[in-house]
Fold this protein.
Amino acid sequence: MFHLLEKRIAEAIAARIEALYGVAGMTQTEQPKQSSFGEIAAPAAFQLSRQLKKAPKVIAGELAAAVGTIEGVAAIEIAGNGYLNLRLDRGYYAAGLLAGEGGAAVTASGKIIVEHTNINPNKAAHIGHLRNAILGDTFARMLRATGHDVEVQNYIDNTGVQVADLVVGFRHLAS
């Protein structure tokens, strides 16, 4: 799904560059170094600045205004001296993932086992245990949605090793 949106963004920016400046070619995209800058960045203004003899920030402003809305993109921002930072529409992205868009179905041989939620019953349960249960279940569901054969092994109150440790401790500490 990410690559589908990345391609859509690159094509939309390339079309606007050709319409505004008459320069044809595919636009390069990259992932910003910091997640606070968005999910995709386009340094197109830097690539055009020499040809157009304009400051990259001016070109980025013109491109951001001309691109308009792109399906799957929530916002386009100008950052630094001329980067176009794009924030994806997370609802659109999640719906696409759940619908199986943007990727070929995986044909995996064999079964994948996901083991999660092995809480030690001799200690107090905490929010981290709930988090791990949610992550494990989500991971198993995502694998199933992509066509994998998944078996979930969920050991709730697995007391095997913990009870053995307690018995050894009582036995040796009792004397």
